Amino acid sequence: MKNKIKRIFKDDLIRHAVIVFLGTGLVGVFNLLYHLVTVRLLTPGDYGTFNALVSFVMFTSMAISPLGTTLTRFFTEYIAKGDLVTLFFTFKKIIKRLIIIAFAIGGLFFVISPLLAGFLKTSTLYVFVCGGIIVVSLFSIPLISLFQSFQKFIIYSFLGIVSSIGKLIFGTLFMLLGIKVLGGLSGFLVGPIVIVLVALLFIPNILRKEMGHIDKSVSLKVNLLPIYKYFFPVGVIMVSFTFLTTIDVILVKHFFSSLDAGYYSIAQMVGKIALFLPSALAIVILPKSTQAYITEGSSIKLLTKSLFLAGICCFTFTLVSFLFPNFLLTVLAGKINPVSRELVGLFALAMSFYALTWIVINYLLAIHNLKFTIPLLVIAIFEAIAIYNCHPRLTMVVYVLLIFGIISLFSSLLVVKVSQKKKKGYNESKLI
Question: How far apart (Å, rounded) are the C-alpha atoms in residues 396 and 256?
C-alpha cells in the first residue's frame, strides 16, 4: 500500500493536482467564509442583489479572462520549445497593451452604468464598482498565467490563498462598518490587487532562474497575431460557458421577487460547490496537455484520468446534497428555507456535469482544438432562451440547467472522439 501511494504521488498530474486542489481548497474555504459572512451580514434582498452583481462581474469579465487561458497556452508552448526570449518579450508587450485596455473598459463602464443598473434594479454606483473590479483583475491575468505555464503550482496556489484572505478581511470589515452591498463588492476589488502585489515578489526570481540568460536590453519584435487569433474563439468558449452557469441568477433576479432570488442564490451558492471541487484538474491539465501536444506526446490519458477523478468528487458531493440538504444549508448558509432545500441537490447535480465539461474544454484548448466554439455558443443561447421563456417556478430553472449541462458534456466528448479518430487516421496514413 505504501509503494502504491508513492507511485500515485510520483504521477505529475496527480501531484500537481493535489497541490492546486489543496490551494484552491483553502481559497474555497476563504471564499465560502466570505459568502457565509455576506449571507449573515446582508438581508436576503441585499444578498440577492450582491449575488446578481457578482454573477454579472463573472459574466462580463469573460470578455477579458480568456487572456489567461490564451497566455498559458502560448507561454507553455514557448517553454516546451525552449524559446524563452519570445516568452519574455511577449509578456512585456502584453502588459503594455493591458494598460490601454484598462482605460477603455473604465470609460465604457462610466457611460453604460446607468443602463445596466436599470436592468439589474440596483444602484449605478454598484455597477461602476463592478467595472473597477474587472479593470483591476486585468493585470493579475498575465502574472498568474506565467506561474501556471512554468508549472509553479505552489506559487500559483499561494497567490489565490492570499488574495482570498485579503478579500475576506477587507470585505467583512467594510460590511461591518455598514456599507453592506458596496462593502461586499469591495472584497472582490481588493483580491486582484493583492495578487498583483504578491506576484511581483516572485517574478524577479522566475526571471533570474528560468530566463536569466536573456539580454533584456535588446528589444525583440514579437508577433501577437497568433495570440489574437486564438484569443477570440477562446473568448467565445469561455463567455458561453460562463453564460451557461451564471445567466440563471441574473434572469431569476429579473423575473422573481428579491426574496425568491435570495433563496435561489443561497441554494446556488451551496450547489455550485460541485462546479468548483475539481477545478484544480482543469488548471493542471491545460499546461500539461499543451506540453504533451507540442512534444507529440499522448494527452488523452490525462483527460481520462482527470474526468475519472473529477467524477468521483462531483457526484459524491451531489449525493450528500440530496441526502443531507438541511445539514449543508445549516453549515454553509446558517439558515434553512423550503425553497433552497428543494433546489440544492438538483443544483449540485447540474453543476457536476458543467464541471466535467469544463475539464474537457480545457483539454480541447490545450491541443488547439477550437471546433467546440460554435456548438457551445449555440447551447448557451438555447439555455438562456429556455429559462427566459420557461420559468413558472424556480425548480424548473434548475431542471433547465441540468438538461443543458448534460448536453454540454456529451457534445464536448463527441468533439474529443472525432478529434482522436482524425488523429489516428492521420498517423496510420503516415505509416502507409
Answer: 13
CA distance 163 to 170: 11
With contact defined as beta carbons under 8 Å apart, do 127 and 52 qualify? no
218 pLDDT band, cuts 50/70/90, is low
The Cα 401–Cα 395 span in angstroms is: 10
Domain that holds residue 56: 2-214+222-425
Name residue, grid cell 436576503: 44
**Predicted local confidence at residue 431, as pLDDT:** 42
pLDDT for res 376: 93
Q: Quick check: is 431 in a domain? A: no
* Domains in the chain, number: 1
DSSP E strand boundaries for 110-237: none
Cell numbers that stand for 319 in this block = 449525493
| Domain annotation covers residue 432 | no
pLDDT at 319: 93
CA atoms within 13 A on the CB side of 25: 9
Angle between helices 181-210 and 153-176 (to 10 degrees): 160
% of the chain surpassing 70 pLDDT: 91
Check residue 377 and give its pLDDT: 93
Q: Which residues contact 191 (CB under 8 A, 6 or more apart)?
A: 163, 164, 166, 167
- Tell me if 370 is assigned to some domain: yes
